[in-house]
Write a structure and sequence with these properties.
The protein has two helices and two strands. By secondary structure, the chain is α+β, with helices and mostly antiparallel strands. It has one domain. It has a two-stranded parallel ribbon. Helix 1 links the parallel strand 1 and strand 2. The chain is elongated.
Length: 57
């Protein structure tokens, strides 16, 4: 069985990309397990934030 994980880059509840992923789940062909994941809770890297924190030390 092939397993696919679709992840939308948006955290908005009304995200069009997330809605499209959810709509695609039941359309997966036989032998394919398609799940929708989220980036919620994953700390994202932002060099600007890091640089600002280093300057304030």
């Amino acid at each position: 069985m092939t397993k696919l994980l679709g992840i939308s880059g948006s955290l908005r509840k009304a995200s069009f990309n997330t809605a499209l992923l959810r709509a695609a789940v039941p359309l997966a062909p036989a032998g394919v397990e398609f799940s929708v994941g989220t980036i919620e809770g994953i700390p994202l890297y932002n060099a600007d934030v890091e640089r600002k924190a280093c300057r304030s030390r």
